[in-house]
Design a protein that fits this description.
Oligomer: single chain
Pfam families: Peptidase_A17
InterPro entries: Retrotrans_Pao
């Protein structure tokens, strides 16, 4: 059931006897649903076959290896101009769902990104520098057909499998690759089984952030591989960035970008499975830097690091012994807010250090002038204080004093004294309203009984 993809059955058996049994049973079962299974192919030597297409990949049934189909549009002759349309055609013509050609496919993708950055049209010829890089890369395309991986992953009867995920990043790209390590009767086999590579965003980012993107990509790849194989007894994650390992292992309030990806990594993996690997022995490094098909074929990309063939005791030291300074640059800033819970600033606290009422008035007037002058559309007040400013300052002081007058006093005398407000100032109406005296005399302002006012 799990071997079917639409109408294609792809599976493995141990020998020819199991193959014949599987074939006959599958045909009978599918006949019940009126489906006909035909065009069988295998790596059995009895079959007179050379190569078969399996889910878009080329399968050499003799060597039992999988490879990608050679693109037909990689002509690097001088007569054919190199445009952005040509680059896109070449990039999309390589169908590689496994990702084992990712390091060599990075260069045309980078050239495509540079073309977009330079706002080059689809049919405009690329600048000489970009065109030269593409032609050098395309001249090695004859090595493309030699890039292949073994179809068979498991040694017969082997039951000790470990999955190793490597992640890395550069200023150009971030990548991850997965190796399956099998140990059977003292023999260790390491095979590349999957890889992913992504271009770095056009918006410039820091290397630690790109390394974190690579780690998140590795976590997703591990989940996909593990859901398909279901055989690995343990999964190891290898990263050469101490900053990223610190982000993953430390429980700190990281900023949004780092926090979201760290959360995803922690959800998909066990943080104790993350280990440090030196950059010079990290196989994922190749997928973050440009190489041609010749370099890819001769690299250690296919077999993994040499230390992976040794016992675990000889693997790189994985302890995160120190925390780099760059780690806490992504720590979310904490805002501390202090709330007043009852210790209010009263009138005497504001003006305790003034020796005269006149100085209080002038200080208040200057504060009000400053508030006026910082307003965008208000006329600026300069020179000496005017009478209007002094009067407004006094009204402001009266309002402050009255605001601290206990409301109980006003309620106590409301039946015997008639209060009213004028411009926000509380006044009292007296029996002298019929006199021809000034209004300030007939309607005096109410001031609280305050020792500071008595002193001033």
């Amino acid at each position: 059931k799990e071997g079917f993809y639409v109408d294609n059955l792809v599976t493995s058996v141990n020998d020819s006897t199991e193959l014949e049994q599987l074939k006959s049973q599958s045909i009978e079962i599918m006949k019940e649903g009126a489906f006909e299974l035909r065009c069988w192919a295998s790596n059995d030597s009895k079959e007179d076959q050379d190569k078969q297409m399996v889910l878009g990949l080329s399968w050499d049934v003799v060597s039992d290896e999988l490879s990608c189909k050679l693109p037909a549009n990689t002509d690097c002759t001088q007569e054919k101009p190199v445009t952005k349309r040509v680059l896109l055609s070449v990039i999309n013509s390589v169908y590689d769902p496994i990702g084992f050609t990712a390091p060599a496919l990075l260069l045309p993708k980078l050239l495509m990104q540079e073309a977009w950055r330079g706002k080059i049209g689809w049919d405009e010829v690329l600048p000489v520098e970009l065109e030269h890089k593409y032609r050098l890369w395309a001249k090695t395309m004859h090595f493309f057909s030699k890039c292949s991986i073994s179809r068979r992953l498991f040694v017969e009867n082997c039951d000790d499998f470990t999955l190793h995920i490597f992640t890395d990043a550069s200023a150009y790209a971030y990548a991850t690759c997965a190796f399956l390590r099998c140990e059977f009767k003292g023999q260790v086999t390491v095979k590349l089984i999957a890889a992913k590579a992504r271009l770095a965003p056009m918006k410039k980012s820091t290397i630690p952030r790109l390394e974190l993107l690579g780690a998140a990509l590795g976590a997703r790849l591990a989940e996909t591989v593990d859901s398909i194989l279901r055989t690995a007894s343990k999964t190891y994650f290898w990263c050469d960035s101490m900053v990223v390992l610190s982000w993953i292992k430390k429980k700190e309030p990281w900023n949004t970008f780092v926090g979201n990806r760290v959360k995803e990594i922690r959800d998909l993996t066990n943080i104790d499975d993350w280990r440090h690997v030196p950059g010079e022995v990290n196989p994922a490094d190749l997928a973050t830097r440009c190489c041609d098909w010749s370099d890819l074929l001769q690299s250690k990309w296919w077999e993994g690091p040499s230390w992976l063939y040794n016992d675990e005791e000889s693997w790189p030291c994985s302890e995160v012994s120190e925390t780099p300074d760059e780690t806490f640059l992504e720590r979310r800033k904490t805002v501390v807010t202090n709330l007043a819970t009852g210790n209010e600033v009263r009138f005497e606290d504001r003006f305790l250090y003034f020796s005269s009422y006149k100085k209080i008035l002038r200080m208040t007037a200057y504060v009000l002038r400053f508030c006026n002058n910082i307003k965008r559309n208000s006329p600026k007040l300069v020179n000496s204080l005017s009478c209007e400013e002094i009067q407004k300052a006094e009204e402001t002081l009266i309002k402050i004093m009255q605001s601290e007058w206990p409301s109980e006093i006003r309620e106590k005398y409301k039946d015997t004294i008639q209060f009213f407000e004028e411009n926000g100032i509380l006044k009292v109406q007296t029996r002298l309203i019929l006199c021809q005296d000034p209004e300030d005399f007939t309607h005096p302002t109410v001031l609280p009984d305050h020792p500071l006012l008595e002193r001033l």
